[in-house]
Amino acid sequence: xxxxxxxxxxxxxxxxxxxxxxxxxxxxxxxxxxxxxxxxxxxxxxxxxxxxxxxxxxxxxxxxxxxxxxxxxxxxxxxxxxxxxxxxxxxxxxxxxxxxxxxxxxxxxxxxxxxxxxxxxxxxxxxxxxxxxxxxxxxxxxxxxxxxxxxxxxxxxxxxxxxxxxxxxxxxxxxxxxxxxxxxxxxxxxxxxxxxxxxxxxxxxxxxxxxxxxxxxxxxxxxxxxxxxxxxxxxxxxxxxxxxxxxxxxxxxxxxxxxxxxxxxxxxxxxxxxxxxxxxxxxxxxxxxxxxxxxxxxxxxxxxxxxxxxxxxxxxxx
Length: 318
Description:
- The chain is built from 12 helices and 7 strands.
- The chain has helices at residues 18-30, 63-70, 100-107, 114-122, 130-133, 163-178, 186-193, 211-236, 245-248, 260-276, 285-293, 295-317; strands at 2-4, 7-12, 35-38, 53-56, 90-93, 154-157, 199-202.
- α2 links the parallel β4 (53-56) and β5.
- α8 packs parallel to α11, α8 (211-236) runs parallel beside α12 (295-317) and α10 crosses α12 (295-317).
- By secondary structure, the chain is mostly helical.
- The two termini are 51 Å apart.
- The strands form 3 sheets. It has a 3-stranded mixed sheet with strand order 1-2-3, covered by helices on one side.
- The protein folds into 3 domains: 2-160 and 197-202, 3-Layer(aba) Sandwich (Rossmann fold), CATH 3.40.50; 161-196, no CATH class; 211-317.
């Protein structure tokens, strides 16, 4: 869990066990968390009406999953009061995601055109394979694209909600009619008074980084990535986490553990400790970051090590 200036946030991801996921969700629904970070974990069927900001940092190929995601923050909290702050949803994204087309389609969401709704219903994005979601496929440790230390220069804001406009238009129609003017011009007058396009605003100043919190986060991230490395290591050598081949069959590795996952994690942490060369409590933030970036190499080394043992055993049994 992260805390900054009185706000609390947590991450939910596929490597968590069910108990960890349940705790995060309970913290979110009970109000302990102000923010939750997720990747393909809270999709269709997830419901928490009090969410009000959707930050999108992945592309959507079609409208349907985009609508499902932003729909999480479009629930009405206070009935019969469209202007209430709790009923306002905010969508935040990066211009580099190229989501302009999805946003344009979403603006037309109130359109009753059958072709439009057929597109929404039929525009399904390819689902992530089950073996990937369950962690049973071979995956790379590193991401294809990683952005570190990005500087946000400016924010571009566009208001496309119309709930408040409807009330203004209705009131203006009544006044125009009372004055003997064309009430049908009310909507055009309101739209003409609004600023079109997006507005450029200055970015919010970056949070000051507290050294002890940065150190703690760097250590936590290394521990988390070590666990992920252990899982991917097993995926790459075709071993199940609950199996016992490493501790009881691959005896030349010299690992004693309850199961393959614990044994793999021990192997990863042994390599990490070798690279650090000292107790983790004595390491610096920069050393933690350096070793975290080096985990890809540690993974390749351990994959080769286990595969050699597997090959030797096959030769012995041939």
